[in-house]
Write a structure and sequence with these properties.
The complex is a heterodimer of chains A (364) and B (455). Chain A is an all-alpha fold and 364 residues long. Chain A contains 15 helices and two strands. In chain A, a hairpin with a 2-residue loop joins strand 1 and strand 2. Chain B has 455 residues and is an alpha+beta fold. In chain B, strand 4 and strand 5 form a beta hairpin. The chains are: A mainly alpha (364), B alpha+beta (455).
Chain lengths: 364, 455
């Protein structure tokens, strides 16, 4: 499989930390979080594999191209629109969460809307690029930041403050029945591959996802999931971790680099995740924009030979995110994201029946 | 045959026409050679023709050979003879240094150019420690000769064309036919034939003229004067453009990382060159971000750095009467002025200018508390690290980007700086150099990465 596919999967894995996944999982730590994680791990891997297999059948074609070929027009419109909105919300959650984070930890003097506007300015430029440039950007930022993520992870595991007893305590709850919310939250880690619905357009060569790729994804995904859940518990304590709004930020603030110019890991962490969550939003919204472009296109809506339809969508993106940022509170945000993640997992039933249907029609 | 008869009837007329066209030029020479039965007429512009060669090649044999047939046969056998050409072209060739010889109702065009620009210059723009120390000359024939001397392969192709409505400069398109990416070559040729500037003086002008975008920041072709770089890139399948009268070439297509390589990277041993490369990228990163980090760390997030450092930065800013971004902007602008002045000034004065500017201004600025000591260090570090970028055009581009990043950092602190860097990255990834991606990480083999379908 193409290395760019792996990047798409990676971004979701790494960015989950700011997408309220750890908070949701930790809130259920004494209920069924552990078993849910195991279930969702297997589920996520299967999803990832199936998705890659499906798109391997159609090299160079995105989902819109396929639905147009094999589906009635109205149906393809409805389904693509729903998917586009889903992807938009996925990006929006990351955007809003990170705006809150910046406001709270890095730039408390700046008004929230100002932070969001800065985000949006660069996002606007980014999602209007062609898909290839988006992938190149993702690759470069990931290659620059993954070593730091790796170092922070190692630092966390080897830190003296990490109390393994708390992790042991959390393991005691493995017998509790899994909950749907926890499953859907942790499955989010492995769903990055679904961005293929647009990016498959670029993978024109015939390729096959093999067991080596899957093993690699499984290994990294497993590590990410375990780290996401256990490190905050081990650092902050099994009981106390529930009182923290951003478990991972607080965890990173308890790490210290004794011999570096920047002493508190939290600032490296924040800047790192600023870049990574930017990528996450960039990918999601780029997919949204491309999906919308494939179903709604006003030919006459032009200014100086430049079609303004994408700008129309972008203005909706702006308005919606500015409204969301000003109305949501941190409590609501986590609640709504857990609703969204639940919906996301359910919607994959539709997604896979769509895949099956297209596969039948295409007879491949 | 038809053209031949046609020529007989008009050869004298053509000569007259050429004479009429150039009459107002005082250095035009129309010299009849006459002895016994033999009669030949020469027409040339004295100042562009090599008189000695003319004497040796044409005048002397004329008097020595027996008959006019012999003279004609002799002249026809000369390697300088140019193919039959329409009279407009003849006129143009005359201005470039050709001689028109009328012999037995036939016009022969001999190329006896005198060029005073043949001297091969020493490398001045991109000096290296190892590798060839001479660059190119300002004469195209010499330059092609130099390149061919260094690249012996039959598939090396040199195509000539003319550019510039008024100046008619010759332009050579040089590439290795076996290795070149044909799409890129087509693209370049198409663009070249489409442009028609009134005058063109330097190959680097092509960088702007061949760019699709009217306003661009980053160079999409690489300017170089080094012959080893030219050969290295030819072997890599790139196209080299060479303009007469310019001692630099431009190379296309390029990727961003090409601008960060020095030719010394090939000559040194592995770990040394790795270290130098790392140093260079560190320099790039430092000169892009240091001013921004300073503003962000003093005005937005002093808590980011360890306490001791934060305190010493704050301490050195005691007495500075304005916010940090004004301070940085003030010092950066003066640094840019200093760089610019040291390029334009006559060499004799440069030393004085840099001393006055760099030492005295820097020292006085801190003592007058117009800038902090740490600021001076940062400006110095930024200036040095800008000079580390091997290709000049890129370092000019980076200087501009640095100011843009400073603006973002002044507006949104460290977050703004990170956004700015990502924005710059996105700007780079969307660029392309003649259809090839400009900024892309090359992890796999070259074949796998350059194939259009692989991405």
């Amino acid at each position: 499989m193409n290395r760019y596919f792996i990047y798409l999967v990676f971004v979701n894995m790494v960015a989950n930390v700011v997408a309220s996944v750890p908070k949701i999982l930790i809130s259920q730590r004494s209920e069924g979080a552990l078993l849910s994680m195991i279930i969702s791990y297997i589920l996520g891997l299967v999803f990832c594999y199936l998705c890659a297999r499906f798109f391997n059948l159609f090299p160079g074609e995105g989902l819109p191209d396929l639905t147009k070929k094999y589906m009635p027009r109205w149906f393809s419109f409805v389904i693509l629109f729903v998917i586009a909105v889903t992807w938009y919300i996925a990006g929006l959650i990351t955007l809003v969460t990170f705006s809150f984070l910046l406001k709270r930890f890095l730039t408390p003097d700046m008004p929230l809307s100002w932070i969001t506007i800065t985000f949006l300015l660069f996002l606007t430029y980014g999602i209007l690029l062609n898909s290839k440039s988006v992938l190149y950007t993702v690759e470069f930022v990931l290659i620059c930041s993954l070593p730091f993520v790796f170092i922070i992870t190692i630092k966390a595991y080897t830190s003296h403050e990490l109390n393994w007893d708390f992790i042991g305590e959390s393991l005691m709850y493995i017998h509790n029945p899994p909950s749907f919310t926890a499953i859907s939250a942790s499955a989010y880690l492995l769903l990055g591959g679904f961005n293929l619905i647009i990016f498959n357009r670029l993978f024109k060569k015939k390729q096959q996802i093999n067991w080596k790729n899957m093993l690699f994804i499984a290994l990294i995904g497993g590590t990410a999931l375990v780290t996401t859940y256990f490190i905050p518990i081990g650092m902050l304590g099994f009981d106390a971790v529930g009182d923290v709004v951003y478990p991972w930020i607080t965890t990173s603030d308890s790490l210290r680099l004794e011999f570096f110019i920047v002493e508190r890991v939290i600032y490296i962490f924040l800047l790192l995740y600023l870049a990574i969550s930017f990528l996450s939003v960039l990918i999601h919204w780029h997919v949204t924009l491309e999906l919308l472009k494939s179903i709604i296109w006003f030919k006459k809506f032009q200014l100086k030979k430049r079609n303004l339809t994408p700008y129309l969508f972008l203005s909706f993106f702006w308005v919606a995110s500015l409204i969301a940022v000003s109305y949501l509170t941190e409590y609501h945000l986590i609640q709504y994201s857990s609703y969204f993640l639940n919906f996301l997992l359910c919607s994959f039933v539709v997604m896979f029946s769509l895949f099956l249907f297209i596969k039948r029609r295409a007879k491949v | 045959m038809r053209s031949f008869t046609n020529k007989i009837s008009t050869s004298h007329e053509t000569l007259e026409w050429l004479f009429e066209e150039l009459k107002s030029t005082s250095d035009l020479v129309n010299k009849p050679l006459h002895v016994g039965e033999k009669h030949v007429e020469l027409l040339y512009i004295k100042t562009v023709v090599d008189g000695e060669q003319l004497q040796q090649l044409v005048i002397k044999p004329f008097f020595e050979l027996e008959s006019l047939e012999h003279v004609e046969a002799y002249l026809n056998s000369l390697p300088n003879l140019q193919e039959n050409q329409p009279r407009e072209q003849m006129l143009l060739e005359l201005t470039k240094g050709s001689v028109v010889v009328e012999v037995r109702d036939q016009l022969l065009l001999l190329d006896i150019k005198k060029s005073n620009t043949e001297a091969v210059l020493e490398t001045s723009i991109e000096p290296t420690i190892q590798g060839p120390q001479y660059s190119l000359s300002e004469d195209i024939a010499t330059n092609i000769n130099i390149i061919r001397q260094r690249y012996h392969k039959p598939s090396l192709t040199v195509e000539m064309m003319e550019l510039g409505e008024n100046t008619h400069q010759s332009l050579a398109i040089i590439y290795d036919e076996e290795l070149v990416i044909s799409d890129v070559l087509e693209n370049i040729k198409k663009k070249l034939s489409a442009l028609n500037p009134p005058i063109i003086q330097s190959t680097t002008e092509l960088n702007r003229l061949l760019n699709d975008k009217k306003r661009s920041l980053m160079p999409i072709m690489m300017m170089t004067e080094r012959t080893d770089r030219v050969v290295f890139n030819l072997a890599g399948g790139k196209v080299v453009l060479l303009l007469d009268g310019s001692h630099t070439t431009v190379i296309a297509p390029v990727v961003f990382f090409d601008f960060m390589t020095s030719m010394d990277d090939i000559y040194g041993s592995y770990w040394i060159t790795r270290f130098l490369k790392l140093l260079r990228y560190f320099g790039l990163f430092a000169c892009l971000t240091l001013p921004g980090i300073y503003v962000a760390a003093t005005s937005y997030n002093p808590e980011v750095f360890r306490v001791e450092l934060a305190l010493s930065i704050a301490g050195s800013r005691i007495g500075v009467p304005y916010p940090s971004f004004v301070e940085v902007l003030f010092m950066l602008v003066f640094m840019e002025l200093l760089t610019e002045a040291s390029i334009r000034l006559p060499k004799a004065v440069t030393g004085a200018a840099t001393t006055v500017g760099g030492l005295i201004l820097g020292q006085a600025a801190t003592e007058a508390a117009l800038a902090s000591n740490i600021m001076i260090i940062i400006v110095g570090a930024v200036a040095i690290s800008t000079f580390v970028i091997p290709i000049n055009e890129m370092s000019f581009g980076i200087r501009v980007v640095r100011l843009i990043l400073l603006v973002f950092a002044s507006f949104a602190g460290l977050a703004g700086l990170v956004f700015g860097l990502i924005g710059f990255l996105m700007y780079l990834t969307q660029l392309n150099s003649f259809g090839e991606p400009y900024f892309k990480i090359y992890l796999q083999s070259k074949r796998a990465e350059t194939e259009k379908t692989s991405s």
